[in-house]
Specification:
The protein is mainly α. Helix content is 81%, strand content 0%. It has one domain: Up-down Bundle (Growth Hormone, Chain: A), CATH 1.20.1250.20. α3 packs antiparallel against α14.
């Protein structure tokens, strides 16, 4: 493993602070997803309700994400990150207070989760574009892998720690801790200066949005990558929401089992991020994108029928590895292939498609309640793998356009 290539982006001081802030956000968000599912399952005993919370967030982000991209093309991206991450943290703290006071109701969880999800969507769009401003195109794949390393590294400890905290102190105390960690991450961004880049010369909001959607519609490589994002994350990543049901129904475990599923997924992600970072840059980004998405789907299919905890931990680690390999290439290609003045809007559309995770979670919950959680996950994995194979023919074109940059 080449250490110089692995740490390429970390030579930029501003990137190190953004990386640390993202670590704090991930350290709060990933265990929150576990705690949220656990709380809703306790309150309702319904797999559908477990999937409904992220689904509602997806509805709002479907509408607002294009505007988040427009904001990223018009305004200070660092300040947008800070506002969004503060909203994320405070909404989680509020849920924690309500749980500790024994005043929590299902509608509280659903409404505050919507706020948290909206903040996450704006933060993600602003962060990815700001990060490109910091490191540039040649280092961006390495920087993206580093960001995934921070989120997956947080996932190593966070989920299993969350399981122990839920078991020992209750889910309310978990939320108080997680929200505070996310807000601390905002303070780190005060160490970073805003970067002046060429901003969008505004016509009108409608015309600017139409220009962004028109660019995506007419650019086949970008359009195909975004379609892959929609299917892979909407039908694959949405399976994370079913972890509480998997832990209890398939593996016969408890909150610690639930935490270990998240931890082993994070372990695979860390290995994947370290592996891809060690290359610094890669010419065949398109081939890796669709190849990793295909294997991601296959491993999900195998995971769906495992009733053995050790086998499930091994499979979810492989799934985490492939998820990072796919995701790093998708985000890198979208920004490398997009003109500077269009980047925020394209990443806003990317965020729109990520709402597919929430809608997919709703579908997963509905199918799990009808046919069983194993068939829900199996179907999602099969569609992800099929879609990757269908679009693999686009890889040579994408590889050529991205080049070695």
């Amino acid at each position: 493993m080449n250490w110089e290539r692995l740490t390429l982006a970390f030579r930029v001081p501003a990137y190190r602070w953004v990386w640390a802030s993202n670590f704090a956000a991930a350290a709060g968000f990933q265990p929150f997803m576990i705690g949220q599912g656990w709380l809703l399952y306790e309150l309702t005993n319904s797999p559908f309700m477990v999937g409904l919370a992220p689904g509602l967030g997806a509805v709002f982000n479907l509408i607002l994400s294009p505007f988040w991209g427009l904001l990223a093309d018009r305004f200070d991206r660092r300040k947008l990150m800070m506002i969004a991450q503060t909203a994320m943290g405070l909404s989680i703290v509020t849920i924690g207070i309500l749980v500790v006071m024994d005043r929590i109701e299902v509608w509280h969880v659903l409404s505050l989760t919507v706020i948290q999800r909206m903040g996450m969507s704006l933060q993600r769009t602003a962060r990815s574009t700001f990060m490109f401003d910091i490191v540039g195109s040649k280092t961006f794949m390495n920087a993206t892998a580093g960001q995934f390393l921070s989120s997956q590294g947080a996932g190593l400890i966070g989920p299993v720690a969350a399981g122990f905290i839920i078991k020992s102190f209750g889910v309310g105390h978990l939320f108080l801790i997680l929200g505070s960690i996310i807000v601390i991450g905002v303070l780190l961004l005060f160490q970073v200066e805003s970067i002046l880049v060429k901003r969008l010369q505004s016509k009108s909001i409608i015309e600017d949005l139409k220009e962004g959607f028109g660019f995506v519609r007419n650019d086949k490589p970008i359009r195909t990558i975004l379609w892959t994002v929609l299917i892979t994350e909407g039908l694959g990543f949405s399976t994370w929401s079913m972890f509480p049901v998997v832990a209890i129904s398939l593996l016969g475990g408890d909150a610690v089992t639930l935490g270990l599923l998240g931890t082993f997924r994070g372990l695979g992600g860390v290995i994947g991020a370290l592996f891809i970072s060690s290359f610094g840059d890669i010419r065949f980004k398109g081939s890796i994108l669709w190849g990793a998405a295909f294997l991601f789907g296959l491993f999900l299919m195998a995971f769906s029928f495992s009733h053995n905890a050790l086998l499930s931990y091994a499979l979810i680690s492989a799934i985490g590895f492939m998820a990072i390999m796919y995701n790093t290439q998708a985000q890198s290609l979208l920004q490398i292939l997009t003109p500077d003045q269009m980047r925020g809007r394209v990443m806003g559309i990317h965020s729109v498609l990520l709402t597919g995770i929430g809608f997919g979670a709703m579908g997963m919950g509905a199918i799990a309640g009808w046919l069983g959680v194993n068939w829900a996950i199996f179907g999602g994995g099969g569609l992800v793998a099929t879609n990757a194979l269908t679009n693999l023919s686009m890889a040579p074109t994408v590889n050529r356009q991205a080049g070695g940059s």
